[in-house]
Fold this sequence. Notes:
Blueprint: H1 6-15, H2 21-43, H3 52-56, H4 59-94, H5 101-142, H6 149-176, H7 180-187, H8 192-202, H9 207-239, H10 244-275
Helix pairs in contact: 1-10, 2-4, 2-10, 4-5, 4-7, 4-10, 6-9, 7-8, 9-10
Amino acid sequence: xxxxxxxxxxxxxxxxxxxxxxxxxxxxxxxxxxxxxxxxxxxxxxxxxxxxxxxxxxxxxxxxxxxxxxxxxxxxxxxxxxxxxxxxxxxxxxxxxxxxxxxxxxxxxxxxxxxxxxxxxxxxxxxxxxxxxxxxxxxxxxxxxxxxxxxxxxxxxxxxxxxxxxxxxxxxxxxxxxxxxxxxxxxxxxxxxxxxxxxxxxxxxxxxxxxxxxxxxxxxxxxxxxxxxxxxxxxxxxxxxxxxxxxxxxxxxxxxxxxxxxxxxxxxxxxxxxxxxxxxxxxxxx
Length: 286
């Protein structure tokens, strides 16, 4: 299995969208960002934000209560749309545009389902582990019992040590399984478990380089998105949070931040996949 070159992986990342820019934009921006945003505004109560008078009279509270009934379903649909757009984009890029946009979107939406189910299982397992580790302390505080100073100090020290280690562990896991999505899309497969195994084998020899790559990208993205967030926040506060213009600025700002994030979430794994030797029957990147 090939060892990764970070510069080569980044080169593949930036070139992944060449030649199919319009199709990628339709999938990532249209399906993955704009459609979920429109659904949220129309069905999730977001439209009431544009009516400050309605919010002041309690209309906003009614909208929030109504949103609670279908909030889970709406979140699920938005998750499938966003994740499905990533799979569709990988499929378009890995076939060099050989698959039509419509069928790529159809594949992506279906491929997102097993990923969602696996995510639910992982979250449940992590929740159980977290409860077993910290459950006794949390339950005692919830019942009104004040833990001893030594117990609080021990809990604080455990959190101080475990949280950074846990985040580093998550970054390492992401490095080992980063090729899962591209591997599924490359073979037009819906078997996420098989793709996890493929990614694990592909990244074995270069796992620490990929981890360092992710850390560097994370730092760069944090700085860039913090600057963008400050710009959006200042523009929103300048017009007053209750004004229609400020809400519009927040939505535009969210879109501006979401677009590069979506392209990175697709391009970086695809670049790593190609740099590690992952290829399809067609030329992967032009």
